[in-house]
Amino acid sequence: MILNFMLTILSYIIPKDRNLILLGSYNTFAGNTKTFYLYCLSKARNNFKIYWITHNKCIYRLLVNRQLPVLYIYTLDAFIHILRARYLLLTHGPIDISYFYFLFGKFNMIQTWHGIALKDITPTAEQKAPLYMRIINYFSRLTDRNYKLILATSEDTRRIFISAFNNENVKIIGYPRNDVFYNKELLYEDYREKLHLYNFSKVILYCPTFRENPTLQPFSNDFLNVLNEYLKFNNFIMLIKRHPYDNFLLNSINESHLSNIIDISAIVIDVQDLLPHVDILITDYSSILFDFPLLDRPIIFYPYDINLYTEKCRSLNYDYFEELPGPFATNEKELLEVIKRIDIIGMDDSYREKYKTFKRKFHYYDDGKACERLLDYLLKEL
Description:
Blueprint lengths: L1 H9 L6 E7 L7 H12 L6 E6 L2 H9 L4 E3 L3 H9 E6 L18 E3 L19 H14 L4 E4 L2 H11 L4 E3 L18 H4 L7 E5 L14 H14 L1 E5 L20 E3 L16 E4 L4 H4 L7 E3 L4 H7 L7 H4 L8 H15 L2 H14 L7 H11 L2
Parallel strand pairs: 1-2, 1-4, 2-3, 4-5, 5-6, 6-7, 8-9, 8-11, 9-10, 11-12
């Protein structure tokens, strides 16, 4: 916090470098900032000096080994770059590109955010947090008002973000991370090769959201055994990608006897690089359910703990069973049945129309040019 206080004071003294952009995502290499970073590095039409800034030494070494411009945040060089940057791009909050959760001063911070908000992201949602986090969140909310730009994907998400951030600087540009669905050159990792996914007829991904408080486990061991036999018989594979901050869900799975169910949470840094190789998505309340429709592939919604989740974790911005296109499964038996019937469900005309309506509501753009629009905006508007 002391370092951020120093940044605040010095930001009014140290001049900006108009060609310097810093991007970060705290201790990972993922999200909208990652894709935009790779896009900017691939473009010769701008004179920007682009740097990724990270709290994670492993990420730092990874990018250094790939000869990509990167700064380890706990260095004098990084401190100076934060002060000098024309733009600071983040995905969660100032912690992505500084030393604490809030940052004030003369900075041009661009909030790219980390997903369309199915879950409540207003201050009300933080009332269940411990006292010290509520205090931090209070000052973080003051920072929200200073963002020069907040990215949205549609008029509906723009409305939610204006209210949540108490900031009118919300523009419908689209999410850069979704450009990987249209431009494979923006993929950082080739998970089809890395995970040998070409060996399987279908790839199913289970990707649940983060739970601030424990609810229920999604699968029993008996169910996983039955599912594994079905997958093996059909030459399917199910990948499990847990939320990086969740140590509760699926923490007792014994994978040794599950030949066709694999937890890839420790392998896959950014799930967005994996999605182009996924045939069927299974999720609950994760914002991934808004991204995946851009691939026009089926989603199975599995809100097995929805009552506990909305009671103990967060409320939802939408009526889950009315807004989402389905199909839904609320228990293991239903889930297995939907997995078996998903191809038939996907051919139903009414389902396909509801799916298209859902996609159009949350994505004004469906063209893979969010990075281009964002760069143009930074060059021309700010």
